[in-house]
Amino acid sequence: xxxxxxxxxxxxxxxxxxxxxxxxxxxxxxxxxxxxxxxxxxxxxxxxxxxxxxxxxxxxxxxxxxxxxxxxxxxxxxxxxxxxxxxxxxxxxxxxxxxxxxxxxxxxxxxxxxxxxxxxxxxxxxxxxxxxxxxxxxxxxxxxxxxxxxxxxxxxxxxxxxxxxxxxxxxxxxxxxxxxxxxxxxxxxxxxxxxxxxxxxxxxxxxxxxxxxxxxxxxxxxxxxxxxxxxxxxxxxxxxxxxxxxxxxxxxxxxxxxxxx
Amino acid sequence: xxxxxxxxxxxxxxxxxxxxxxxxxxxxxxxxxxxxxxxxxxxxxxxxxxxxxxxxxxxxxxxxxxxxxxxxxxxxxxxxxxxxxxxxxxxxxxxxxxxxxxxxxxxxxxxxxxxxxxxxxxxxxxxxxxxxxxxxxxxxxxxxxxxxxxxxxxxxxxxxxxxxxxxxxxxxxxxxxxxxxxxxxxxxxxxxxxxxxxxxxxxxxxxxxxxxxxxxxxxxxxxxxxxxxxxxxxxxxxxxxxxxxxxxxxxxxxxxxxxxx
Lengths: 261, 261
Description:
The structure is a homodimer of 261-residue chains.
Chain A: E1 44-47, H1 52-63, E2 68-72, H2 75-88, E3 94-98, H3 99-102, E4 108-111, H4 115-124, E5 134-137, H5 161-168, E6 174-177, H6 184-188, E7 196-200, H7 205-216, E8 221-225, H8 232-235, H9 238-249, E9 254-258
Parallel strand pairs in A: 1-2, 1-4, 2-3, 4-5, 5-6, 7-8
Helix pairs in contact in A: 1-2, 4-5
């Protein structure tokens, strides 16, 4: 499979992939000199990857040797975004598909949509998500979803967007929460050297370990376990905090937890 | 005045002090070789400095050449804590006084009390706080205040403990919010080299600049303007997040905002 740079509609995704077994036996092949061979990695669908954050994640995962399926409500838009990603990261493996198609068979699904579209997307994915899958929710309930400020949030009945997602996914699907504090612009700026943390919330350590290993493949992103999913109530609030800092200091801020090393 | 190491009950605090004028003209005197002369600095009262966070801040400010008045409900406890601080930081200037006495004439007052005592303390300070003063609130509405978890918070009607404080202080007193993410234990461990941020919220830039200059005197603490006081809703939530990280990783975590330099 190697490092296909053009999107293909016929995807072959090895099943049974475990991140914990993803060492680079015998070194990486010549076509992917920096990272592990893409062949040993299950593709990661990103629902909403035509948006800024999802697209930035797609680029970075693609460059890290992780095959990415760009999900969109529209098949053509998904394919276009995959082609664009492949042009930006020629060594990456990108595919495009409708969201419900994109998530099939994946072990880890990333949900990166605006809060106003989260419920709709999760409703549409009800027949597509499968027991055993991990859904990584990156949604932030910004007040901007209802014409409010991007430095304020809406109250979510379940406590957080991630907890709302957990209520909506089919039984057997586990929701994790991550990627709220990483700038979409910096992810997409491939010349920018990332150096920040990704805060992860989730109820099971083993799930978080799997996600952490995936995140750790992106150079400069360090995953940090922040506790159970309910902590997403706090971590989701960091997005408006960072937006407020960005506005004040004219920067693209991120978060680093000190004292961990 | 120099660097009195013993607490004295007769305090002399120069008025009219402005942090912005606190350069070190002619260099620091021999007795305080690292920092500016304490003589040019107005004393900073810390209400609740017999507690862990307040005491840690007292030590660090003392070492930075900022005279500190340790406030407590009890005069003797305040004096004892001041003596203890002076023993730990012989170059520092520490005094102890009842809270209402401690805050008199100060430009910047730090409020470092548990959430369950915040209202009581502010009520007691109503006759003591003076128009023009800045009150820096470090209160966090941990659910632990009502026998809940330290990784959860209580809802505060005004939005945050800091906003509750703003509602309670006398007219003309301005509340800022800070110090929520700095470990009390690391502050008190004077061998520990701090390297983290202090997130500041407040409605007026000039007030935040004054506070930032004060915080910047402590080696290893970088003040970061996070926006208006209402952002304390978010920043106060970082304490339970850090507690959750501490528990999981067995560390004393803090926060660093990336991308600012």
